[in-house]
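Design review, sub-item: ligand-bound model
Attendees: FS, YL, KQ
YL presented the inputs for the adenosine-5'-diphosphate complex:
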Amino acid sequence: MPKVRIVFDRVRVEEKMLEQKAIELGHDTKMIDAKTTQINTESKKNNFDFGDVVIERCVSYFRGLHFTACLEFLDVPVINKFEVANNCGNKMLTSLLLRKHNVPTPKTYFSFSSDAALETLDKEGYPLVIKPITGSWGRGVMALKDRDTADAIVEVRELSDGPLDRIYYLQEMVRRPPRDIRAITVGEQVIAAMYRTSTDSFKTNIALGAEPIACEITKELDDVCVKASKAVGGGILGIDVMEDEKHGLVVHEINNTVEFKGLAKVAKRNIPKEMIEYAIASAIR
Ligand SMILES: Nc1ncnc2c1ncn2[C@@H]1O[C@H](COP(=O)(O)OP(=O)(O)O)[C@@H](O)[C@H]1O
Ligand SMILES: [Mg+2]
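KQ shared the predicted structure:
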């Protein structure tokens, strides 16, 4: 009987759904709190109860990433892999990989000082979207509409001590309907997709109140999402896609620890079931 472990730092609806489904499917299932787990350089796999496969679900990206490194050190199969988590947790690495693998993605500019960022803005014209290279729920994603706004945002960034704030990620403002698409890929399959429609903000995150509406998984959507998943190394992923008026579907972000309580309401397939079955299958393989 395969043993499934779910590593968490805060139990959201999603972690509860995964635990319940794993139990329902008859697997030996345990939740492991990353915050109370102690690992050292002499640790061995059999000092712990990490089972046959771990699904890493920490809310804190850096906690989850570093915990994943420890699991791989112990030779515990973990979803997602460290490399994948690292690629997806950093929007700049994601953009580079998407482009490198010919996955359509918005044009994105990288600058390494405030002056260079302002120069990009002046040269390319407003608006551009600025994003922190790590983060989610739309936090810190802003439309820079003119030089005054850009000056203010860049100045605030300069005052912060965060090392990642020295890296400026600026993106063309994609012309699209007031919605985007969130798809979930499990291995090489798109198992569910929804539109996220927002009327009061250009950001369409469910965390900001966007409406989830069922979205058909067309061949074009399937192709672009599977290609995007492969570009970052595969696993269980949340792919964010926009419908660019000029270029069709473009992928703007890939989420490593995908939330799915909104999508579960409108999806045809059972999302936690697909995730658990994939985790078990990849552990056995
Ligand atoms: N280049 C863009 N053009 C238009 N809208 C964008 C662009 N980038 C992001 N958005 C909007 O902002 C939301 C949040 O951006 P995203 O890159 O997904 O960051 P987060 O990790 O915070 O979800 C997207 O879901 C989308 O609605
Ligand atoms: Mg997003």
